């Protein structure tokens, strides 16, 4: 499919090069592409076609937009788009700036590009203003709430979370056990699949709610403050700010084995304090959720983790990133 996409790309580029020569006058020595999305990399290619001396710096947050991992079967449009993104970056990017845990993989995928590692995101500094509320967050409601808040996309594998919830043993009364999945959904078909799965619980004692839209900060804080367990079953993540947000609201966090390198790189302290667990498969995920719901919450462990999270300040990381990009531009 990639070779076919490359062939189509060559034909498209010839047309674009003519348009680029007519519409774009060179004002840039370098261009920074913030995401590996088709509109961003297309702009990069147009500028590069106009003048090959322009240096292109592509920021890559995770591999889902390049490799197609976790893509739902039959989603041909998304697969072709990802193939195009991959080919454009391979052909026109000079530098790739990536998260440290992705550096080795990106070097293998893009041997001709210079791959530089740094943390592209981080924990928003305003979240630390609520650290004093931690004791309040530790006092959870009488019901048990399991949550996921973030983008709703196929590679997030949220159907795994619904299946794991269904498998939970009777050790926890289902009458007080609730599951909320919330976040913006770009893939309508996948959202409908999740809603269909949730609707099967309507005539049972299970409680599943799907919110397929952006969650405002106030509502997110309310949900996470009441939640006991946060589950991210994704196959790909960058820094995964959702893990930090959950920990800041006194949640136990569970991820799948595909995120092992992510949590070892950025959340090792939470992992060592058993506030973050790694599940190997669907059955293990269900067992880990049950264990996390019944385990004792130790405030001291959370406060230790929160102090470590401050080292991942978004503002500090952005200063580092800006300095790195400025250094690359100075080399031109």
Please explain how this structure is put together.
The chain is of the alpha/beta class and 332 residues long. Helix content is 48%, strand content 14%. The strands form two sheets. Strands 7-6-5-8-9-10 form a six-stranded parallel beta sheet, with helices on both faces. A four-stranded parallel beta sheet has the order 1-2-3-4, covered by helices on one side. Strand 5 (144-149), helix 7 and strand 6 (177-182) form a beta-alpha-beta unit. The protein is globular. The model has no long low-confidence stretch (mean pLDDT 82).
Describe the main β-sheet briefly: 6 strands, parallel
Strand proportion, as a percent range, falls in 5-15%
Low-pLDDT segments: none
- Along the chain, the helix and strand elements come as HEHEHHEHEHEHEHEHEHEHHEHHH
The coarse overall form would be: globular
Q: Biggest sheet: strands side by side, in what order?
A: 7-6-5-8-9-10
Measured distance between first and last alpha carbons:
35 Å
Number of helices: 15
The total count of strands amounts to 10
Regarding quaternary structure, what we see is single chain
- Helix/strand/pairing category: alpha/beta
Helix content: 40-55%
Please state the CA-atom Rg, rounded to the nearest Å: 22 Å
Average residue pLDDT: 82
């Amino acid at each position: 499919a990639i070779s076919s996409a490359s062939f189509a790309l060559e034909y498209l580029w010839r047309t674009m090069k003519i348009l680029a020569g007519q519409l774009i006058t060179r004002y840039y020595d370098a261009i920074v592409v913030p995401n590996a999305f088709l509109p961003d990399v297309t702009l990069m290619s147009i500028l590069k076609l106009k003048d090959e001396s322009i240096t292109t710096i592509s920021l890559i947050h995770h591999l889902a937009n390049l490799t197609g991992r976790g893509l739902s079967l039959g989603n041909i449009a998304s697969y072709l788009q990802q193939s195009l993104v991959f080919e454009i970056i391979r052909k026109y990017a000079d530098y790739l700036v990536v998260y440290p845990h992705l550096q080795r993989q990106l070097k293998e995928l893009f041997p001709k590009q210079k791959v530089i590692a740094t943390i592209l995101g981080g924990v928003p500094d305003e979240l630390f203003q609520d650290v004093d509320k931690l004791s309040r967050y530790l006092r959870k409601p009488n019901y048990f709430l399991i949550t996921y808040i973030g983008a709703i996309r196929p590679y997030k594998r949220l159907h795994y979370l619904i299946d794991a919830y269904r498998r939970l043993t009777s050790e926890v009364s289902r009458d007080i056990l609730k599951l909320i999945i919330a976040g913006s959904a770009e893939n309508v078909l996948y959202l409908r699949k999740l809603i269909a799965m949730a609707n099967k619980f309507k005539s049972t004692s299970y409680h599943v709610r799907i919110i397929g839209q952006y969650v405002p900060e106030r509502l997110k804080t309310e949900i996470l403050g009441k939640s006991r367990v946060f589950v991210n079953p994704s196959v790909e993540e960058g820094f995964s700010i959702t893990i930090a947000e959950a920990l800041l609201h006194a949640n136990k966090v569970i991820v799948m084995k595909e995120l092992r390198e992510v949590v070892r790189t950025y959340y090792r302290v939470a992992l060592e304090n058993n506030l973050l667990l790694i599940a190997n498969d669907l059955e293990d995920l269900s067992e880990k959720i049950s264990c996390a719901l019944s385990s004792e919450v130790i405030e001291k462990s959370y406060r230790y983790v929160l102090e470590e999270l401050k080292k991942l300040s978004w503002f500090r990381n952005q200063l580092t990133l800006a300095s790195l990009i400025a250094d690359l531009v100075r080399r031109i």
